Fold:
Amino acid sequence: MTTIETATPAAAPKPSRRRGRLIAAGLVILLAAAGTAYWLTRDTDTGAYDPDAPYLDASRPVAERVDDLLGRMTLDEKIGQMTQAERREVTGGDVTAYALGSLLSGGGSVPSDNTPQGWADMYDGFQTEALATRLRIPMIYGVDAVHGHNNVHGATIFPHNIGLGATRDPQLVRRIGEAVATEVTATGLDWDFAPCLCVARDARWGRTYESFGEDPEIASSMTTIVTGLQGEKLGGPNSVLATAKHYVGDGGTVDGKDQGDARIPEEELRKIHLPPFQAAVKAGVGSVMVSFSSFNGEKLHGHRYLITEVLKGELGFTGFVVSDWNAIDQLDGVRDAFTPAEVSTAINAGIDMVMVPERWREFIAVLRDEVNAGNVPMERIDDANRRILAKKFELGMFEHPMADRAQFDKVGSAAHRELARQAVRQSQVLLKNSGVLPLKPKTGKVFVAGRSADDIGNQSGGWTLTWQGSSGPITDGTTILQGVKEAVEPGGTVTYSADGTGVDKSYDVAIAVIGETPYAEYEGDRPDGVKLDKVDLDTLATLRKAGVPVVVVLVSGRPVDVSAQLPQVQGLVAAWLPGTEGAGVADVLFGAYAPTGKLPMSWPATAAQEPVNTGDEKTPLFPYGFGLTY
Ligand code: BGC
Ligand code: BGC
Structure:
């Protein structure tokens, strides 16, 4: 690792001298707290950089390296490690000046050159700044690669978790984790804010598609993705730090409200929402992200019992806990400032790294004051640092801090797209078939309609290129229409019109690709239930009037109320949010692969029936686990 070897040569300070310096540093910190020219004095060092320091010796055990490094760090350096800023909110020199421990890309926060090389260049720029700090501790860069490396143009977009839940195939999901980790490391990044292990109990929740399903058993079994992302252990060639999120009960809020309140007994929290986190800890997940939501009125970000006692104590989680986007600012119910009470409550509750995207300077100042005032014990700061630094060592970041530029071509590679297509096939759930499916390949006249038939953006959903996602040709891939054409032509003909105009009796079948358009957290909440829009109902009406059999392919992040339409259509397939490989949908429609997908959620009989879950007294339209085949 060349960067570190350009060290300013300095002998290891003798312990006694170091102690003296520590005391001096302590005095300086007190002065700084008194409000004097703080940034000029803060890093009166406890020893210059020492290239022979034990923490730089990769042959030593991680625990020893952590202890050694921690012993050299000032309070400000420790607070820096606990601080995560957004890439748009730092300017040249900040990472060095504030010794920032981590950066992130929020949804859609991309370098101006949104290519693998553009990302690697950006990453290396920040890392060079981190390595210019006194102790040369690398920064760790996190991103939401929640269904592929989804901010990157040209990356493979896999089905969202709800579709993966329908596959019931943990080994497939593990391989997807490996592919995602490869695409993420190919761009230089270290850390993925995935998997979401939320157990969605109410489909009105806008994050339902980030859930593997309503039964904890599915999400628990899918924690194979943690091994896929991290490797058998951290530090392998394509290993990224995984994040189990959002701890805990985010899918159990009243009325499926995002960032809402799970008003349930602890017994139910433990039975429904905790098990996937237990499984993730068992699989060695390196980080856990806390949920914006509350548990019986108490915000999770201040929940010492659930974070420190249950997660770190009972479950034995040894990685680090990261907060969600500005979430600590919500602790007192007012989004205004990181108040001293909010900051100390969050850190004392057990949060180790704090996602403070924009106002990270404010956070640093408040936490410093709270430590100096004795409101946050030094042992808590040290514990947080131990946890963060251990992961950086385990990832091999001190040995290989810079982006590995040998794998740009892995991003959106043919092999990953083939894996994604397989996942799409396996995620299709056949809900109705009056004998019209499978369609005959390479013969006949097929009509395709619907606003999601030829739309990569719609079939990918939220968290694709941008935070909320958007319609249109937003990245490379195969639309469902293109997949249908591949299956039919030559031999047959495919006619397409989004609203169904032009359909007539001469067609053998009409495929209507309808459903939801992209949304993400918060904006996707549908308190009145999930229904078809008028434009989709109009398309269906046009097709039905022509008197041809209609197969509905529903592109959606969750069950949609289709009870009124069901008797009028001859086939219904839940395609979920398949991502960029739309041909996988056609593979099933045309019988190249028989459907095997099973519902990961109960399908409500009416929009008003939510919440409806397996084991309750209600009768859904299709039960949990339902799925036909041929
Ligand atoms: C979301 C997280 C995400 C984070 C960073 C938050 O708003 O709740 O799931 O990891 O933003 O983008
Ligand atoms: C970011 C997301 C984040 C959200 C939180 C957006 O601007 O892109 O990553 O989750 O803000 O409100």
Summary: Residues 127 and 163 are 36 Å apart (CA to CA). The two ends are 56 Å apart (CA to CA).
